């Protein structure tokens, strides 16, 4: 049995050539195109509900979220009308029990929480309190807020990144509303993009502008604090290379980071103290690695600008994706969302 994924992508309204959501399968070392699942305008991020045959797509340039009912391994149908979000909606995630969908908007900094009905459809959202630029000074206009990702932590809280304000915020989800618990201010110009939580409770944040991994650790006060900073490697240059997705190996002992501009995947080990240690880098065999997922002992990479999805075998000793297994031509891929069909 293979691994099935819904592929998000950019259509012409977002500068790409995709027609919408596609379905693919990875099986026995090979990638297979299962066809167009549903037409859509730049469904740049897709997330699947863990308990319902439903997926959600961020229609980025329309600023809307579309819900779809899964009808087969390669087809979905609309579940109600798309709901409004904000400018350049770029990321979606679900809370721990699948009752709330969180949307992040790069264009206007909005973070929204949508209640999910029993059939998977979305209700009216709650708008979280807006971010404030921690480096704004009197007489200087504040920088734009750029919400980029939300993630559900193992303790049930929600954490969000703001690439424009160089900060992260931790929230409690109370009766479907996001209640701010903590703001973590990073260095000016870091540009936190995406993050992943380790089973130990450590959080690894990849920065798009400073090209680092910042490790957050639980603090004595019950929040999180910056514990370390690790450069991705000497080959990566801020302003020329732009990290995208960060993921944790299935064994929780390595990190993988896609680096746009360098056309590569950076691999870092995790030391006994949790601090990342650069292992090396490998070519992604394409241009602009926007997203990636792990499937067993393979890493599947969506190369946005070269219109390819490539599967790599992972080296058994150091985890490097050093064996090209399969390549699939697909228009402007930006996201790979796994789906386990009921």
Explain this structure to me?
The chain is an all-beta fold and 342 residues long. It has a domain at 42-131 and 143-185: YVTN repeat-like/Quinoprotein amine dehydrogenase (Methylamine Dehydrogenase, Chain H, 7 Propeller), CATH 2.130.10.10. The protein has no helices and 29 strands. It has strands spanning 3-9, 20-27, 30-39, 43-48, 54-59, 64-72, 75-78, 83-84, 89-94, 100-105, 111-115, 126-127, 147-152, 158-162, 167-174, 177-185, 192-197, 203-207, 212-218, 224-231, 242-248, 254-260, 264-270, 276-283, 289-295, 298-303, 308-314, 321-329, 333-338. The strands form 7 sheets. Strands 4, 5, 6, 7 and 8 form a 5-stranded antiparallel β-sheet that branches. A hairpin with a 5-residue loop joins strand 23 and strand 24. The chain is globular, with a radius of gyration of 19 Å. The mean pLDDT is 96.
List the helices and strands and how they pair.
Blueprint: E1 3-9, E2 20-27, E3 30-39, E4 43-48, E5 54-59, E6 64-72, E7 75-78, E8 83-84, E9 89-94, E10 100-105, E11 111-115, E12 126-127, E13 147-152, E14 158-162, E15 167-174, E16 177-185, E17 192-197, E18 203-207, E19 212-218, E20 224-231, E21 242-248, E22 254-260, E23 264-270, E24 276-283, E25 289-295, E26 298-303, E27 308-314, E28 321-329, E29 333-338
Antiparallel strand pairs: 1-2, 1-29, 2-3, 4-5, 5-6, 6-7, 6-8, 9-10, 10-11, 11-12, 13-14, 14-15, 15-16, 17-18, 18-19, 19-20, 21-22, 22-23, 23-24, 25-26, 26-27, 27-28
């Amino acid at each position: 049995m293979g691994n099935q994924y819904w592929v998000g992508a950019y259509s012409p309204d977002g500068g790409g050539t995709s027609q919408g959501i596609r379905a693919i399968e990875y099986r026995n070392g090979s990638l297979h195109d299962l066809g167009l699942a549903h037409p859509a305008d730049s469904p740049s991020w897709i997330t699947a509900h863990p308990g319902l045959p439903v997926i959600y797509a961020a229609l980025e340039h329309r600023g809307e979220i579309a819900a779809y009912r899964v009808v087969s391994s390669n087809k979905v149908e609309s579940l109600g009308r798309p709901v409004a979000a904000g400018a350049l909606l770029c990321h979606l995630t679900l809370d721990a029990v699948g009752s709330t969908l969180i949307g992040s908007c790069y264009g206007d900094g909005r973070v929204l929480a949508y209640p999910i009905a029993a059939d998977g459809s979305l209700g009216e959202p709650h708008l979280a309190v807006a971010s404030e630029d921690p480096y704004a000074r009197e007489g200087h206009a504040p920088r734009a807020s750029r919400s980029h990702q939300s993630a559900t932590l193992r303790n049930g809280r929600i954490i969000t990144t703001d690439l424009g304000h160089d900060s992260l915020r931790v929230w409690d989800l109370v009766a479907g509303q996001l209640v701010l618990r903590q703001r973590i201010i990073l260095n000016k110009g870091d540009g936190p993009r995406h993050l992943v939580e380790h089973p130990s409770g450590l959080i690894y944040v990849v920065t798009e502008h400073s090209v680092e991994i910042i490790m957050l650790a639980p603090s004595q006060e019950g929040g999180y604090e910056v514990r370390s900073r690790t450069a991705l490697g000497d080959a990566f240059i801020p302003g020329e290379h732009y990290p995208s997705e960060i993921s944790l190996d299935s064994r929780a002992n390595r990190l993988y980071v896609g680096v746009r501009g360098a056309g590569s995947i950076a691999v870092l080990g995790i030391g006994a103290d949790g601090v990342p240690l650069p292992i090396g880098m490998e070519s992604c065999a394409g241009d602009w690695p926007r997203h990636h997922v792990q499937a067993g002992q393979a890493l599947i990479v969506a190369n946005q600008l070269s219109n390819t999805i490539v599967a790599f075998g992972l080296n058994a000793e150091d985890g490097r994706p050093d064996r090209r297994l399969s390549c699939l031509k697909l228009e402007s891929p930006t996201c790979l969302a796994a789906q386990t069909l009921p």
